[in-house]
């Protein structure tokens, strides 16, 4: 009898209270469990709730299977989603809760689609005629536009497409672009580097707005300093440049970061890089080509001023997921994750539409 009373009290919780509780949960999988309790709880928690959600770390290589393997930051566990329709696909990036899947044959794309592994929604995407090699460079939060960077005949291009479009809008570029050094901000503005000072330009007109000399390299640490990947990203209207360093090829404890903010000087289109000591209340997420930030205060129990990144363990021959604390300068390996291939961040989305 007492158990029955407790059951009725839980089911009689106000709908707005259940919804408020769901917005405090850091991971989308927790919200899925809430929706599975009963019909009233399901109706109280929207599948497309816009409240902040932690990203998932998704394997970038399906390795001949139909399994999407992802890592959950809140539970620190690896889970698997079976998607038979994507067997033998390769992941070329994520955007707006979708994964850009490509089925290749001898490196030439045979079919491309935007696929949501949580809902099974698949949106066919026309193949870009310009390229045999490409990857998504748009922000993973972006839902209405997919931006790719491709290579054909030693020339780069930028492709823009919206779900449902019949063709890519291609911008041919007479220079080399590096995926991790492209920032898409306010639609068409990006920053790039090609053996010359980075510059700010417009992807539509190809006009150069300003050149920005790179900041001087930091003082090397250790006898054999190593410069690892560089990243650029936009956060809260600021452009950040991140250098990843290591004093040893094998020791994760020897990894450190240098962060610079792009400052506009005066009224003219003049800019300079200013070194910053940290990123405040933000968490920075890096993978092999992209980066983005979230506010740590939106997620209970998560550390501010830290960087999540992937590093290769040469002793175990596996990729590890790590967290670097900028306050203490220490690096910690997250448990229960290792992979053979680079992985990418995905923002999970339960919406059944694009």
UniProtKB/TrEMBL annotation:
Pfam families: Beta-prop_KIB1-4 (PF03478), F-box (PF00646). Gene3D superfamilies: 1.20.1280.50. Residues 13-54 form the F-box domain. SUPFAM superfamilies: F-box domain (SSF81383). This is F-box domain-containing protein.
